[in-house]
Amino acid sequence: MRYIVTGCDGKLGGRVAEIMLSKVNPTELTFTCPYIERLEPEKKRKWELSGVKVEQANYDSIEEMTKAFEGGDRIFIVSGLTIGETRVRQHSNVVEAAIQAGVNHITYTSFLGASDPAYEHVYVTPDHTATEAYIQKRHEETGVDYSFMQDNLYLENYLTTSVMLALMSGNKWYTTAGEGKATYIPKDDVARVAAALLLGKGENGKTYKICGSESISQRDIVDIINELSGKNIEYCPVSHQEFFEYLDSMHIPREATGDYSRSPVPWCGNDMVTNEGSIAEGLMNVSSNDVELVTGKKPLTAKELAKNYSYIWEKNITNWKDVQ
Prior knowledge:
Distance between the termini: 32 Å
CATH architecture of the largest domain: 3-Layer(aba) Sandwich
Number of helices: 14
Oligomer: single chain
Helix content: 40-55%
Strand order of the largest sheet: 3-2-1-4-5-6-9
Radius of gyration: 19 Å
CATH class of the largest domain: Alpha Beta
Largest sheet: 7 strands, parallel
CATH topology of the largest domain: Rossmann fold
Order of helices and strands: EHEHEHEHEHEHHEEHEEHEHHHHH
């Protein structure tokens, strides 16, 4: 059996890769990333010495991916970064490459609500809706099985970059989330689910709602950060327009294809405003025990996880690239 992990250079794919190393013989693993030269050299060397096949597999090249995936049986697909038509095309490319390479099961990282029309106005959702539909279509045509992970918003983002932006803004935490609550999910827990599904746990054709174990507001998160840091961050709920204007002032582009040269975060305004707005609407306050069902362990809470990111305020981090 050969297992493929895409995006091994990223925060999520890298976590999945490390879990897989602890579960199976490294000679059964293929780790890929879009630009091999951007992969940390020491990490690449360590993986290869252990027996892992490390390959470049850019989502824009079906030919390159097909070659990289050769001999693979099951694949974990991390979603692409560029929101919109580009990402939908890239996702269809990686699915086609996996099928051409002979892969027989796809685990795909989707987004909460991708199969529910109530979420279609959230900026990132349509890409995942289209990708899920494409994978299902190709399943019917080829018999290649799949599992979907519909991830809630990642908890780490609110313990790292949200804190960073607040500290860069005079200790003011701006958001369109209002007093809404969400079951934010830690990436470590997402990675545990991904590895389990990649290894064959779970049901074929099933959608798993990957949500946290607690329903918590951003005001609650601010209180946790203030208690840990000794800071006095003020929670500032604002309108969509006011949030857009704030993000503009932070040099965060409104569109995913915008200029990120001065942006402290890798997301665009449309993404951030609608994600936060969906919290106020109650769309992210979804209860699910799928994480525990698949892994046997409940997700970490915000309070349990927050202490791991104290370096954000201790080192005065000002760019997402410095987030560990």
